[in-house]
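In this supplementary section we document a worked example of the pipeline. Step one takes a protein sequence of length 1495 as its only input; no multiple sequence alignment statistics are reported here. Step two produces a three-dimensional model, which step three serialises into structure tokens for compact storage. The input and output of this example are shown verbatim.
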Amino acid sequence: MEAKSIIIGVEGMTCSSCVQTIEEHIGKVNGIHNIKVSLEEKNAVVIYDPKLQTPALLQEAIYDMGFDATLADPNPQPVLLDTVFLAIPTQPALTPKQICSTLLRNRGIVDVKLSSDQKAAVVTFIAAILNGKQISHMVPGVDLEISAPEGTSGTREDPRWPQASSAVLHLKVEGMTCHSCTSTIEGKIGKLQGIQWIKVSLDNQEAVVVYQPHLITAEEIRHQIEAAGFTASFRKQPRPLKLSAIDLERLRNTQTKGSETALKENSQVNDTVVFRIDGMHCSSCALNIQSTIAALPSVASVAVSLEKRSAAVRYNPSSVSTEMLQKAIEAVSPEFRVSLPDPSEGAALFPTLASQLKSPHPALKDASQPLTQVAVISIEGMTCSSCVQSIEEVVSQKAGVKSIRVSLANQKGTVEYDPLQTSPEDLCSSIEDMGFDASLSAKAELPVATAQPSPEVQLEHLKPEPPSKVSPAHLAQQETKTISKCYVQVTGMTCASCVANIERNLRREDGIHSILVALMAGKAEVRYNPAVIHPSAIAELIQELGFGATVMENCGEGDGILELVVRGMTCASCVHKIESTLMKTNGVLYCSVALATNKAHIKYDPEIIGPRDVIQVIKDLGFTTSLVKKDRSASHLDHKQEIRQWKRSFVVSLVFCIPVMGLMIYMMVMDSQLPDAHTHQNMSSEEMEALHSSMVLEYQLLPGLSVMNFLSFLLCVPVQMFGGWHFYIQAYKALKHKTANMDVLIVLATSIAFVYSFVILLVAMAEKAKVNPVTFFDTPPMLFVFISLGRWLEHVAKGKTSEALARLISLQATEATIVTLGPGNVLLSEEQVDVELVQRGDVVKVIPGGKFPVDGRVIEGHSMVDESLITGEAMPVTKKPGNTVIAGSINQNGSLLISATHVGADTTLSQIVKLVEEAQTSKAPIQQFADKLSGYFVPCIVAVSVVTLFAWIIIGFVDFEIVEKYFLGYNKSISAAEVIIRFAFQASITVLCIACPCSLGLATPTAVMVGTGVGAQNGILIKGGEPLEMAHKVKVVVFDKTGTITHGTPEVMQVKFLVEGNQLPRNKMLAIVGTAESNSEHPLGVAITKYCKKELESETLGTCTDFQVVPGCGISCKVTNIEALLYRKNRMVEENNIKNVTLVKIEENIDESVQPALIIDAELPTPLTSQKYSVLIGNREWMSRNGLIVKNEVDKAMMEHERRGRTAVLAAVDGVLCGLIAIADTVKPEAELAVHTLKSMGLEVVLMTGDNSKTARSIASQVGITKVFAEVLPSHKVAKVKQLQDEGKRVAMVGDGINDSPALAMANVGIAIGTGTDVAIEAADVVLIKDDLMDVVASIDLSRKTVKRIRINFVFALIYNLIGVPIAAGVFLPIGLVLQPWMGSAAMAASSVSVVLSSLLLKMYQKPSSEKLEFRARGQMRHKSPSEISVHIGIDETGTGSPKLSLMDRIINYSRASINSLFSDKRSVNSAVLNEPDKHSLLVGDFGEDDDTAL
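The serialised model returned by step three reads:
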């Protein structure tokens, strides 16, 4: 797929006729794209296909025509190709293949490829001959439209250098470990045909490639990288690169002159020097040095080795000296100490580093014209020149940024950048990461070049758009027509920042109109232009951000459904009128109105129309309408309906059962009172008849029908019909679906008993029997009584397990006040509507004391909001414009206007309810086993029952004596056959009655329901049965550090004063330092201000002016107006002292000499004159830059703090060092006890953090953890969890749910600690609503207790069945153990109730109390010494374990540390144990572990 050009000299031409002849003849030759013959220059320029023609053949062809032909240049030149993308119509006159072949017949077309879906063709053509428009009209009868990528081809046609079609590809490359890997990839891919530029970043694990799609595909590039031994995947879909003609000229020069550049570089006399660099901590330090030094003009290449702590630099000694290079490396960071190694050491290091030396930018090193574009970025949120300075400093340090100018007045930034190294989107992200809102201005990116372009090129840039282009208004209109909507299921979101991240990044993408992400539903609703982007591409964009994303097929889920009651309809004409009007309304998708029920069912698109609009349309037609009221109560959870039903069933059965039981008791009493009661077995039939006739109930109404049997029958029929109605329906449904459940067993038992008795009675009446037959009419009423009682009690218990959920549902508001706002947010009107009618975008007013009806964003007003019922956080939360609010939370003291963002089923509360419902209905694996068992259980019991029946019939006929001996109530008046059958039936019915799969089925769900309910009450949200069951199997608990073990916010730990109190009193210094830091937004600055306010007992400080911040160093400013603050403080101290003195005088133990010393820092109430103080706060580097010397003892004190994981900061006032402030993130008070308790439960505890090893070791020693993984990236946390799982361990991961979400999802049990909407963190299985580590212990303990309860329930259920069934079958008959059917049903009911009651005992569960655990752990908890902690860097097991010390060494170290800490604590104002957090590791990452970084 290429074309070449050759110039052939032609002699012998005399006129234009000769020219025409040659062009026509050669033009017809196969493989010739174009020929241009010049009579003046006597040559022919031929563009041909090298596969079909050669220069020699062409020369011969011209020679054969009678002209002399010579090859001017034997080497043919490649011809620049271009590509155009053609959209093939849906029903073309020709097939796609015919279209391809037609196109290929045309001169100038080199290749045509069809897309996989046959809807587009990629045409490669010679740009010098054709353009896209000509190609689109080449196929007769078919209109081929040029699709989106056309923007890359030929819009600015220059005959000298037509624009090439280039694309940018972002690839994620995994497996790179050093810069050698990056150079391997750059070298291999850079050589491929069609690759214009490649840059591989080790730090970002990413490759950016500029390539020509017509020469090489993105897939081929990926395969080539994988062939080199790395894993590559597309991070972003290839996008066309918009470059100016100058840029392309430069790119061409870079490619063709690469070899020349290399020669020039090599021709320079370069020296190589090796430096020793101390203070590097990670690959980021090495990369920082490499990128900074490589950018110097006289440096050819640089290689930095972190392991060898050295760097080799190849440089031009005529331009730069080694001393200058040394200073340049030291300037990268104050941490780095650079020296030249000994000659022997240098010789050892040289060969290793020399092999790594490479040019940092092979393609760009000597480019004469830097490739530059300009982006104008709108920046919101800047308040002062400090913001401007911060943005300029941070952005200017980004790779590829040439210059930046930020205007505070215009709220805009203008950035000159290299599009091959960065993009406007990346620049916006950098600014947003600093806390500002950034967006690209509508102003186009301007290509800039250092060399002045030619006038033709300038004219081209200024050329107006051709008139064929459509107007912007028309484009906008067209776009709205083509806007489509899709839904994407998003997993891995943990908090509101994830939502903001997805929304912010996707809004920037081309073709995406709007996006709305619902955290709780895990769903994104995206409106997009299908001509530009597809749903699958949107899902990929979300995946690139680190979340799981799949396109939801049932897109109709977003459609609104409205159920209305319509009054005033009289005939079918009214129905037609409503339906036709609604269907014509824009946004209504479906409408159905029923005249009989006065109801309308409407489906609509909530993006276009809302429920209130639909109601208004119907009202305008003259009908009254209202919403069908939905049941918002938790009635389906409290089981009220079932309780009512089973109570009724029980009462009905009991009403008829009591007389039956009365008759039975009467018969038994009469039987026992007869004189020959015990000898009746020997009665003859005549005596039996006489006895029956003497008893009232045995009196025969008809021959064979006694009063007793008649009454029993009458009482049994209603019970069988009404009491058993529900059982019959359920049994029918089960059998219809080919399953057998408990109801089938009950129906079988009662029906067999009833039918058998009825048939026996009919036979006796037919035979006119003198002796009344024995019937089982008493069995069904008694069976139903016990079963309905059991079911009633069971549902009462189930109702109690769902109380927590019912309480959640009751939080939902029922009405909302919708307001209409005028200009300047003036309230025009307000209306009270049903909460179902609130539409997205409505402005809702919430008064003090009112519930928020929907999720929204505050647009006006300030208030405190109680979110405790949703988040569990007792403290009210401040809400001001811009803050989000949650449906169901309660507004406390001020009116708020909110804009609705999520309504109906999308609100956070609805999603929490859904989540808890799903959790309570989700099955634990152990329950699935129970369900499977129940499926086989019923058929088995029926089989056992049938076997029992036939077994006793056979036994009875073979050996009647056994039945005669053990069958109670046998007498001779009844025939032997009747006795045998009656006994066999009794045994088989009892088997059916006693068997109970219910208890098996109830064993798990009741325990899970109670367990999750109890967990919720204790602030532990467990997502279903599986995590609840899995938590007890956990063997390893992995803790994240920041925000989990520690608080996550820095605090001042110690303030050391470096000047005497008479020079600068303590309060004065605190007032100055606190005021200076009050303008700082840095976490360390905020911590200092907070501490000073607390110490001075004041909410306001002095005035700070000329505030300047230097990132990585410190701040400088001027402080005034602190005198009033000090005067107030000193007055308070004086008053306290006077009170104390008075108290001492009362005791009469006062020493007069002490009195004056009690008044500390007192000042006379003279008129206050304001003094200005010059303040510097920062690290050692900042002080030395400002000419202040840090003494050795101060430096040692700082190093001691840094060793303990703290950040030490110096403060200077008016040029004098006056204070040392130690700041750190504090460990949560309960962390040590939680870790100790987990260990005592037999669990292994691991600490995993992205922070440096010193801080990690310090924290681990405080909480008692001995295994630590430090400097672990979020992606490596997943790998570490996987590694532990591969060792056969069940892992629980405890994190704060922000950067830990992948690891939380990977762990067997993910436990998220967090408040706010983290109530339903997607990634975790267990969410601890309170920020308390003891809840981790409680969740594992609750799991163990629940699983133990499930096992007890199973024992109850299985043992009961295993013992009950054999007894019922008559196995234990020889020992006189016989059960009647009613006894069986009573036992069965008791079994189900006992299982439920056993589960309800979990309600008594109490969380392990900290007091008890502390008492138990007293004397056992102690801080670990450094030698006991093994610290692993990254995820390698072979970490930097501490050296093994002897027992004596350990004792000495321990005592020395104790003495040191004792002295340092004596000197400290405030002391506590502390560490440096992940969240501020920017201080550590850039400047190393021994951090003294700036505020």
